Amino acid sequence: MSVEVERKFLVTSEAWRAGARACRIRQGYLCLGADATVRVRLADDAAFLTVKSRTEGISRAEYEYGIPFADGVAMLETLCTRPIIEKTRHFVDHGGRTWVIDVFGAHNDGLVVAEVELGHPDEVVDLPPWAGEEVTSDPRYRNSALVSAPLGSGCDI
Amino acid sequence: MSVEVERKFLVTSEAWRAGARACRIRQGYLCLGADATVRVRLADDAAFLTVKSRTEGISRAEYEYGIPFADGVAMLETLCTRPIIEKTRHFVDHGGRTWVIDVFGAHNDGLVVAEVELGHPDEVVDLPPWAGEEVTSDPRYRNSALVSAPLGSGCDI
């Protein structure tokens, strides 16, 4: 188990793209309960099953396990809530931290969100110039919420 | 992924107890969705995370992964739906098959159910003398249902 502490921002420009490393993600949810979510994620050629607790402030418990890729594909295709989330994840170094920038596709096409993971909720973060509005506490930007209420171009936010 | 095909019976006597091997199980559910259930199980000193599809007839897809015991304990205590299911599982050989007999405790105290796993739904099964009413297709006897509607002594069934 790890405790995930992260802050999340909308992205205002393309300046982060230079030198970013990318991986392709497809993910869905086996459940979206009040206390826990269970996610199936395919990241390039790896698959993971992840249990997350309800968010407490900006932190939550996370339990992640690598699983056979074929299991991940099968669960995503047959057991996960529709629609599946598709995004390209980019890793960008800034201010001594690695930022994660998710460029969403499919139903959330046009949405770009940057996240940075912290060791502690009160850590000071050097914000990159392309980090816009902070949406850490906005439930609409949770990936689990993007299944039931996508935020793609043309959707009302 | 494996496909689970099993038949389930109520148990009518104690004759199965001689020579049975036992293990102590505590389990709970992270989700009880229409398409999938996600179960956390502690079996003696091992822990498992198990995803099962909705039952189709008497078979269902099952994906089971061993996880660190401490993770299992933490998820069971903090994330699973109450109450937790407690039972002692006994393994009994009969007619060339291994039968599993679950003696429930806690909220389902008094309930004893025998299950046998098959390779195919149409396989002929040599029923042991202590196997009573078949409840394979009775949704009340699913472990997931025993959380929300326990069948312990004093409960109406």
UniProtKB/TrEMBL annotation, chains A, B:
PROSITE patterns: CYTH
Protein's organism: Xanthobacter tagetidis
Signal peptide: none
Highest taxon in the source lineage: Bacteria
Catalytic residues of the enzyme: Y29 (proton acceptor)
SUPFAM superfamilies: CYTH-like phosphatases
The CYTH domain, residue ranges: 2-148
Name of this protein: CYTH domain-containing protein
